[in-house]
From TrEMBL:
<dbReference type="InterPro" id="IPR008912">
    <property type="entry name" value="Uncharacterised_CoxE"/>
</dbReference>
<protein>
    <recommendedName>
        <fullName>VWA domain containing CoxE-like protein</fullName>
    </recommendedName>
</protein>
<dbReference type="InterPro" id="IPR036465">
    <property type="entry name" value="vWFA_dom_sf"/>
</dbReference>
<dbReference type="InterPro" id="IPR050458">
    <property type="entry name" value="LolB"/>
</dbReference>
<dbReference type="Pfam" id="PF05762">
    <property type="entry name" value="VWA_CoxE"/>
</dbReference>
Length: 379
């Protein structure tokens, strides 16, 4: 994603640190927006050093309301800085300040609480890890992936289980299918006016009409640039959950300037994520061309393009390729984000052009994507 360039005074202020605040203000410069977050990230690292060049180990940096943890710092610098700067910051953290608690310290990884923040930090720094640390990191990745899959599997099962039929009831107990009116009617006799409590002795659940589907191809194209890491994680988990569904054949393809077909690893999302190479340029039209080559029955294929839509190759060719897919009645969904927050940052002009070419465009959580796919497939 292209970022607005910082002005020269702001860049000097970030380089010189807090000591330059006075001179910076005198020149009419004050930090705002992302520059504040950049300053906090730089101070977290370089604030460990005194003005005379000696190390200040006690100081942990950061003038914000809360101190960054190492995983949070890693994720922040990957969000805020260009690739060359990130590499220098990570190298200084490890070689100059011995901040190795994620990439070299087995005790820290062994006791770390598995969560998405730490997962992202591991994926961003796995190339720096020794083989024994990678073994521990892989266990952490497996646990976070397991948690994500457990949640998404329930959402997928519900989305693909059919439409509620309020004329029939079922012995299967699914909370969202509860027939509240009948439950209330059948159990009112158990209401105690003194305690104002209703004892429920029998529950009733609506049935669902089963979907009868012919086989569909679902091709997930995932932009693996650094800014899309959340979407990469959730795409891998989504693909793994779709893999076991009847009537669905799933492909997972990662791309930057190259295209890598990861379909054979879809049933092991941990292994898949450990193979992802973050960063690099973006050739979206090339990825769409590869997806087109996989399609067997155009009218029973769905291409889900997960990207920020900042095309590094030919924008005109990207439009043409998407228009060609929709013209053959292949469904195309462009997702600017696929994660738990669905808060995208993307090229809005290109998104509008893809919409005009016949694609659906939006941002979704994995559960919302499951619902969208189930709706399209179930028609």
């Amino acid at each position: 994603m292209t970022r607005p360039a910082l002005d020269a005074l702001t860049r000097w202020r970030l380089v010189l640190g807090e000591a330059a605040d006075g001179a910076c203000r005198s020149a009419g410069c004050s930090l705002s927006g992302e520059a504040i977050a950049m300053d906090a990230a730089l101070d977290w690292l370089y604030g460990r050093e005194e003005e005379d060049g000696t190390r200040n180990i006690a100081r942990q940096g950061g003038r914000g309301p809360s101190a960054l943890t190492t995983p949070q710092w890693i994720n922040d610098i990957h969000r805020l800085f260009p690739k060359e700067t990130i590499e220098r910051l990570e190298r200084d953290a490890i070689e100059r300040y011995d901040i190795d608690d994620v990439v070299t310290n087995p005790e820290v990884l062994a006791r770390a609480e598995p969560n998405e923040t730490l997962l992202k930090a591991v994926l961003r720094t796995k190339h720096l890890m020794s083989p024994d640390i990678l073994v521990l990191a892989r266990k952490l990745v497996q646990e976070v992936v397991r948690q994500l899959m457990e949640k998404l599997s329930r959402e997928l099962a519900l989305a693909f289980s059919g439409v509620i039929d309020r004329r029939r009831h079922s012995r299967f107990r699914i909370a969202s299918d509860l027939d509240f009116r009948r439950v209330l009617k059948d159990n009112l006799k158990h209401y105690d006016p003194k305690t104002r409590r209703l004892t429920v002795e029998k529950l009733h659940f609506f049935a669902r009409n089963q979907r009868h589907m012919k086989t569909w191809q679902i091709i997930l194209l995932v932009d693996q640039s650094g800014s899309m890491l959340d979407s990469v994680i959730h795409s891998a988990v989504t693909a793994a959950c779709l893999w076991g569904l009847p009537g669905v054949r799933t492909h997972l393809v990662a791309f930057d300037t190259n295209v890598v077909d990861l379909t054979r690893d879809v049933d092991d999302p941990c292994e898949l994520l450990m193979k992802v190479q973050l960063g690099g340029g973006t050739d979206i039209q090339g990825a769409v061309a590869y997806a087109a080559s996989l399609i067997e029955q155009p009218e029973r294929a769905i291409v889900v393009l997960i990207s920020d839509f900042f095309e590094g190759a030919s924008e005109a060719m990207l439009e043409q390729r998407v228009a060609a897919l929709t013209a053959q009645r292949t469904l195309v969904l462009g997702l600017a984000a696929l994660d738990s927050d669905a808060a995208p940052a993307y090229d809005r002009d290109m998104a509008r052009r893809l919409l005009a070419a016949g694609a659906d465009v939006g941002a979704m959580t994995p559960g919302e994507l499951a619902g969208w796919l189930a709706e399209k497939i179930g028609r």
